[in-house]
Amino acid sequence: MATQRTSFTKLQRDRAKKAKAAAKREKRLERSAEARTASEDVEGVDGVDETNGEGPISAAELLHEIEVTHQRFEAKLMSYEEFEEKKAELLGRLPID
């Protein structure tokens, strides 16, 4: 018995999957570019992070720092160990009322 050729609907599904994957990839690249620019905004003029663990920072600023850290990790700009260390340091500074 001969095998059936792929149907037109299957070809459409495959094309739709590829288009969706391409759109997700583009969106991911845009987010990583935004994360890079955001992380550059956080760093000082000499490339040193201005939030050095000293002094009071508002909870909103800390949450923003955590978000930037997550974006940098997702963009593969930092290792898992660096990510966990930075996240733990930031969460430790988060004020709990």
Global structural class:
mainly alpha
SSE arrangement, N to C: HHH
Largest β-sheet summary: none
Can you tell me the overall shape? elongated
Number of helices: 3
Q: If you compute it from the alpha carbons, what radius of gyration comes out, rounded to the nearest whole angstrom?
A: 21 Å
How much is the average pLDDT?
Answer: 78
Low-confidence stretches: 44-51
Q: What's the count of strands?
A: 0
Task: State the share of residues found in helices, binned by percent.
Answer: 55-70%
Calculate the terminal CA-CA distance, rounded to whole Å: 72 Å
Protein traits:
mainly alpha, single chain, 97 residues
Tell me what the structure shows:
Helix 1 (8-42) crosses helix 2 and helix 2 runs antiparallel to helix 3 (80-93). 67% of the residues lie in helices and 0% in strands. It has helices at 8-42, 59-74, 80-93. The longest helix has 35 residues, at 8-42. The protein contains 3 helices and no strands. The protein has a domain at 12-42 and 58-93. The chain starts with 7 loop residues before the first helix and ends with a helix. The protein is mostly helical. The radius of gyration is 21 Å and the shape is elongated.
In short:
67% of the residues lie in helices and 0% in strands. The protein is mainly α.
